[in-house]
Amino acid sequence: MTITPFKRLLLTGAAGGLGKVLRERLKGSAEILRLSDISPMAPTTGPHEEVVECDLADKTAVHHLVEGVDAICHFGGVSVERPFEEILGPNICGVFHLYEAARKHGVKRIIFASSNHTIGFYQQDQRIDAQALRRPDGYYGLSKCYGEDLASFYFDRYGIETVSIRIGSSFPEPQNRRMLSTWLSYDDLTALIERGLFTPDVGHTVVYGASANRDVWWDNRFAAHLGYQPKDTSEVFRAKVEAQPAPAADDPSMVYHGGAFVAAGPFD
Ligand code: NAI
Ligand code: 15L
């Protein structure tokens, strides 16, 4: 695949678990990486980086953040299940502010860090593709559904292209039995983001972010044009994970794609 680096690529969520990883790995994708988060980040390491603290819930701040940017990897926001009031500003208003700013500043390509929690209420014996009806497993999953729909609308109305990656579980290693299916290695995540940034004519593409695990629940037939070929597999961690005590067969982590998220809340 031909990679012609962007002039300036914005990464939101740069202080987070994945943001710190991507800060290193996206260097080749842009001449200048603009890193942003509401939390403090490590200072710039040279002229190829810019660091901007910004609350995604602040529309004016997001407008300024996006100025001069060619493409965006949107990884910022609340990343776990929380009460709706905590999700609203960062995830729902935040993604709206980002797309509005992208429209006003002429950004043409966005990678949206969506989540498997858009479809978390499917059961683990069900294999689904990107056209399966969504079954969000909480307010967090609902916010990611909203982000995907916003991406779809901004493509149809304004031609801004997005790849929404329904990330499974992207950590150094799978931490439990469920993650043997949902695990996405950092190398495969990076490859998928690069495919999303540099493949032409993606419109709004929804792709599941999982490595080449033995038992996958997700079928990427509708994202074949991205040419994503995962290289890693959770199999190398199976013995270590299966040495942990097994949860009961009816534990949500053994039943649902979204695992324990399906049982979070209510919060009153
Ligand atoms: P994380 O929680 O470590 O990072 C999220 C970052 O967003 C944090 O640094 C946080 O300070 C920032 N943030 C929160 N509220 C903000 C606000 N109002 N304004 C600006 N920044 C704000 O999460 P992680 O694991 O790095 O995930 C990154 C993205 O990928 C998230 O959007 C998450 O939903 C998504 N994702 C991650 C998965 C994973 O396995 N790591 C799985 C599925 C989705
Ligand atoms: C997510 O969406 C979360 O951001 C991450 O922290 C994990 O919980 C992951 O899903 C998962 O389902 O394992």
UniProtKB/TrEMBL annotation:
Entry keyword annotation includes Electron transport: no
One annotated GO molecular function: uronate dehydrogenase activity
Database matches in InterPro entries: Epimerase_deHydtase, NAD(P)-bd_dom_sf
Record key words, sorted: NAD, Oxidoreductase
EC identifiers of the protein: 1.1.1.203
The keyword Transcription regulation is annotated on this UniProt entry: no
A Pfam family matched in the record: Epimerase
Location of the NAD-dependent epimerase/dehydratase domain: 10-171
Family label: Belongs to the NAD(P)-dependent epimerase/dehydratase family.
Protein name as it appears in the record: Uronate dehydrogenase
Organism: Pseudomonas reidholzensis
Gene name for this UniProt entry: udh
